[in-house]
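G.,

No rush on this.
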Amino acid sequence: MVQNLSTIIILIFSGLNLCLGCHSLGSQYDQFSSRRARARGVSSLERTSDNAIDFDYLTSNLPYSANDIRSISSLTPLPNRPFLTVSDGGKLTCNFDDEMEYCSWHNAENTDMKFWKGKLDSESRFDTSRFNSGSSLSFSPDNNFLLAGGEPMVASQTAAIEMEIPCQYGDADVKLDFWTNTLNVDVRYCIAKSGSDFHDCHLLQRVSNPLNFSVPTTADGLKVRIEVLNIDPDSIALIDNLHYNGQICELIDEVVENSLVSIGGTTSSTPSLITGDPSSPTDPTVQKFFEEDSNGIEESETPSSTGIQTITTTAVSTPVSSQVNVKELSFCSALTCSFNDGDSCFYGLSGVGSTDAWSLSDRLIGNRHTGVQRVNLDDQSKVGFAYVGNDTESQEQKIFVAESPKFSLTQDTLLLFDIYIRSVSPTLKVCIDLFDNCPYKSPMARKDKFWRGRQKVTLKEGSRKVASLVCSFEKWGFQVFFVVENVRKHQFLAIDNIRLESVNGSSLC
């Protein structure tokens, strides 16, 4: 009799386990919570004045629901198009923590549900144990993440993010952290040729983070999508720490690479753009600066050893004459410039003493180590700056001079500008009137700094006087020269956002 009773009990518990295994985690929580409620004399899972204490005790120990997580998160939209494409310097490794990350992953346009950038509210009293008990996947919500779901809906929906690769040398690995609170949600990746629909999709096994998949070599361009399916009203999905380990490229014709572009009677070689995260280590000499402290030792930099490079044609050299009569320009017009819209204002980009011209760019340029790969935070209206250097041609022994028109001042003035410098050897000097009167020299490069804002040069009141042939004195305006020397192959230096302030810090223009 006892043996039969034991058998019956075992069968009951086995059936209970099988039953629980057939339901989602959300339904399990409902069963557990209702049983615990009845055990404590709580007949309803809705909070009332009669059961308030028991209700709060019960819910404080339950895993967070989808609505709970969404309600304690601050959400900002994730765009439906990339802020910067991969070809323009956009990133494929994204943690979503930096507002200026310029991630190329974006929401798929053809899905009704969208991902949002989420961050837990600082005052939400977030309970880590309640979050961790909601899923077996390890996931850290301490910083920003992508979030979809946790909102009312009539039927299950799909949310997806995607990006486009113009060209990829060798296979690439993509890793991501994923979290969901229910078992019915699926996650998969899809790959398609550029311009084609997604048909080749594969489910990702949610065993442990990070989830991973491979992207094959392509010379013609691929689209990659990460989809989360079956998101219902009780479901929520989080994505973070998207890591792309591969080498982005653009195949170029050797004839084009070695050719010169004719502009206004002058020629200028087009700079190259190398982006992505190489799957094989870059030549060690490229990374010397990034592996050692900046101590004034000059480095020799070379690109990755692969023979496939990238090239853009938007950043070109545009010499401009700056011989404008001082009576025609105020000092504000003569000196201030943001270099946006391909405009050098009144600066001559191939000034007196130049052996080569400065260039203008409306996009990020250069290799990922020493190129101009960050937007100037002090001039965010557009990506525009003046620069020297490129990845395809040696710049040794060349001198770059950008000169202002002549001007005069009625008060002492501060000339301010921003500089981008990531290599040790290039130097920028700002000279007034003469090349031996250069009160400014660029700071030492630092591997933790990109744009260095508010570089200052003091301009004294007055105008320069030059003796004429008849021994009288004629007034001439001052001139400012931006002079760069020692720019080697694969090195860049840029300036931006030239403006004027009074000595007490107020803006003059």
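When you get to it, here's the other one too:
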Amino acid sequence: MATRSGIYLELVELSGHVVATGTWNSTLRANCLYQCAHLAKPGHRCRLLQGSREITPITPLAALDLHSGTCIQVVWLSNSVADRPSRRHAFVAIKADGSVVTWGGAGCVGDSSANAPLLTEGAVQICGNECAFAAIKADGSVVTWGDAGCGGDSSAVAPLLTKGVVKVCGNDNAFAAIKADGSVVTWGDADFGGNSSAVAPLLTDGVVQVCGSHSAFAAIKADGSVVTWGDADCGGNSSAVGLLLTDGVVHVSGNEGAFAAIKADGSVVTWGYAGVGGDSSAVAPLLTEGVVQICGNECAFAAIKADGSVVTWGDADCGGNSLAVAPLLTDGVVQVCGNDNAFAAIKADGSVVTWGDADFGGNSSAVALLLTDDVVQVCGSHSAFAAIKADGSVVTWGDVDCGGDSSAVAALLTEGIVHVCGNRNAFAAIKVDGSVVTWGYAGGGGDFSAVAALLTEGVVQIC
């Protein structure tokens, strides 16, 4: 239903649960709907659909098809890909026809030519670690490439990866795949969790999420228990908090050397290397209830609570201490993103708050006037950030060599950007027409000229 000045809409989950209803001014763009969804489920990413049409944050509300009803479908997305800053030096793009394009990576992960015949169609998800990639195809099989020792060679478990894979998670040098029956298959560096034989009986069924630290994995099972393996010092051994991980866990986030788990009652359990957040005792009274999202950077964690406040712990220099911006983090925060040593938080009004290492983007004063409103997504590289605004423009800050300076492609970033992905050294952005724009260190994917002809249209996902 539309009036001269407003459009009445309902935001509805796939389950039929109504997320929100209301009348929005018809002159607005759909970022206001995204912000409403984020308030209903803080910290969770989503897509908005009207029928088969995707509504991006820059879609004008006046352009919605009111003849197909007032229902906007909310599809919640997994946050696992954003649990840790990427350490990759390459990018992979999936196109609408299911083909895969790779670039960057100094001739290693960015070169998928050995498996090119397997990547011409059917790819639906890509996961990367520091030195390799794994692609899930529509038939549930997995294709891998890159450094053999880091998981680029999955031949040892190939019979287990021919069908039924629904999700792949990577840490720095290994992969873990969840199959439709809830079992887990691992490969890559054994010391990093590529060998899960020590906990194999616990990974035969019921696994619903896997998360990686630098060199370990943590899996949540359907009964809310957690199974860990890999490097003991980086969270592979959770025996110190084992009794707290037997039930009720709903999400796990990892950083360089630790894990943090959210339980159903909103409390948090941490383990792993104490100095990077495995020990949260300093803020324990603030983590007993109400936590809805946790984001890890390399050496610290930031938790969003249901009231929109933020709690941080871990290495103070990496953002574990947020006292300098504490008054700005008491309410209204809907998303937090981390790079290696800093954090950026989006508030419900679309403004951004940053803290941590100034050289890594913890100080955003140079672009502060551009971050006061309308920001709908923030993404990090190793030491910089990129923010998408509701008008489809992009704002960057932080280390210029890692994408903090996008002036070379500024003319291409003034409108139409719908998604940005960062790796260790660069950023890649998808435009509404399916084309790609890149910037940052050329050898790390900032220069895609070698495959430019393949990235002019049809790109739907970048990893």
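Residues 193 and 354 are 33 Å apart (CA to CA). Residues 6-77 form a domain with the Ubiquitin-like (UB roll) fold (CATH 3.10.20.90).

Enjoy the weekend,
O.
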